[in-house]
């Protein structure tokens, strides 16, 4: 019981998830423990998987907070598609939004701690040596521009990608991202 109280307080003070979701994680962990003690390994795995999914959902909500509001004259729609635990990308979390103004629209996607990020980290970690595309700066954050698609790597583990409009149209949204805060995501 003391462990439950300490974990709940830490989660609530960290502001990473609503209390109900934190309680769901702890409930799933408690159910897994009970199943394990009862010898039901399949139920143990299911409950641990449920707890893992709930934690990913909390991380996705936290990552979504880094998608900035729209500039004046634009709207933002957060993606309804869950990007949590995308097995084809090797797990991790992601968040995306579509920004629109009249006929113009583009998407911004954030992906953290997955196989795609790991695969691209070597390339994006040294943009100056990439022979394809152009390096542009958004504040102090380097991005690779290829055919109107902007891709940056934050803290060696988070990809920021914008695609669908001109660099000039996407720049004001990207400039609103708190890259320093994003680098601390999940730590």
Explain this structure to me?
With 187 residues, the chain is α+β, with helices and mostly antiparallel strands. It folds into two domains: 62 residues, no CATH class; 119 residues, Phosphorylase Kinase, domain 1. Strands 1-2-3-7-6-5-4 form a seven-stranded antiparallel beta sheet, with helices on both faces. Strand 5 and strand 6 form a beta hairpin. Helix 1 packs antiparallel against helix 2 and helix 2 packs antiparallel against helix 3. The longest helix has 24 residues. It is elongated and about 60 Å long. The two termini are 26 Å apart. The relative contact order is 0.11.
Entry summary:
By secondary structure, this protein is of the alpha+beta class. It has helices at 2-14, 19-37, 41-64, 115-124, 167-174, 179-183; strands spanning 75-78, 93-101, 104-112, 134-138, 141-146, 149-154, 158-163. The chain is built from six helices and seven strands, in the order H-H-H-E-E-E-H-E-E-E-E-H-H.
Strand line-up of the largest beta sheet: 1-2-3-7-6-5-4
Largest sheet: 7 strands, antiparallel
Total individual domains: 2
Write the H/E string, N to C. Answer: HHHEEEHEEEEHH
Low-pLDDT residue intervals, each spanning 5 or more residues: 1-17, 84-88
CATH superfamily placement of the largest domain: MucB/RseB, C-terminal domain
Structural class: alpha+beta
Beta strand %:
15-25%
Task: Lay out the secondary structure.
Layout: H1 2-14, H2 19-37, H3 41-64, E1 75-78, E2 93-101, E3 104-112, H4 115-124, E4 134-138, E5 141-146, E6 149-154, E7 158-163, H5 167-174, H6 179-183
Antiparallel strand pairs: 1-2, 2-3, 3-7, 4-5, 5-6, 6-7
Helix pairs in contact: 1-2, 2-3
């Amino acid at each position: 019981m003391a462990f439950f109280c300490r974990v709940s307080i830490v989660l609530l003070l960290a502001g990473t998830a609503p209390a109900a979701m934190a309680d769901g994680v702890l409930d799933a962990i408690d159910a897994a423990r009970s199943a394990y003690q009862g010898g039901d390994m399949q139920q143990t795995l299911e409950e641990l998987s449920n707890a893992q999914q709930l934690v990913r959902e909390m991380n996705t909500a936290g990552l979504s907070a880094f998608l900035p509001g729209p500039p004046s004259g634009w709207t933002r729609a957060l993606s309804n598609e869950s990007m949590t635990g995308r097995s084809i990308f090797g797990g991790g979390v992601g968040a995306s939004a579509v920004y629109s103004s009249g006929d113009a629209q583009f998407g911004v996607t954030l992906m953290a701690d997955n196989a795609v990020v790991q695969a691209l980290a070597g390339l994006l970690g040294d943009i100056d040596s990439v022979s394809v595309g152009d390096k542009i700066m958004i504040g102090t954050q380097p991005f690779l521009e290829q055919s109107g698609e902007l891709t940056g790597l934050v803290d060696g583990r988070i990809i920021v990608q914008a695609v669908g409009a001109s660099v000039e149209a996407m720049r004001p949204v990207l400039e609103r991202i708190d890259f320093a805060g994003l680098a601390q995501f999940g730590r």
